[in-house]
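Q: What changes when zinc ion is included in the input?
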Amino acid sequence: MLSDIETLSSDKYEGRKTGTAGNLMAANYIINKFKKIGMDAYNDDFKHPFTFINRRNEEIKGVNLIGYIKGKSDQVIVVSAHYDHVGVNNSEIFNGADDNASGVAAILAFAKYFSENKPKNTLLFIAFDAEEMGLQGAYSFLKAPVPPREYIKLNINLDMVSHNDKSELYAAGTYKTPVIKEILQNADKKTGITIKFGHDEPNTGKDDWTMQSDHGPFAKENIPFVYFGVEDHDDYHKPSDDFTNINPDFFYSASNAILKSIILLDKNLARINP
Ligand SMILES: [Zn+2]
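A: The predicted holo structure follows.
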């Protein structure tokens, strides 16, 4: 897992900005992992290209990467993490180790786990592109989702899960869907970290993270979501978001707690969608 973060956030990948060579390298790295794990694909190469118009009125090409592990039921949980970042600015590379090589490394490890321990529901693993350009990959996926919208019952999104000094990981999305909070009650037990709530609740004094990352478009479609991430840190969207500045112990513990959460959510999906 750590080597995935180290590789994806190395200078060679030039900050993985959508539409650049570094971004394409990252996509190919992830696809090779998907293949090694033995995930199923909807097409030959796991690639789902899309285009969008950016703020400067230019057409930009992005590519979502989608693989899945079939469960016993047709119901689908989307487990996602964006792989793009902001690229190079004033000849400084923004490596995006925490944002979001960490989330990608974690979902790759989860995919491997579930390829060996079959889930109850179908798990769709998506590495989204163009999150940093306004959640474009997620919006594009939801325009014409494979599988169809009615099968998609939950989104579990990871964005920044490796950098926190207080051993705190937040789960947002439980205000709209309170049963998720009950299901996750013991997910952090014996992991060494605490799962905290409140970044989607009014009157907590905490800002609302509902539209902060790729779970936002799912929320707009009224698909329940859980977003796992840390509060902003000093290296957030800075060239110093490097592999050397993440907290490996926290990352391992957080990933463990999120994996436990996914297992619980998969088991209890009927409670979320009665
Ligand atoms: Zn991010």
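Observations recorded in class: The chain is about 30% helix and 20% strand.
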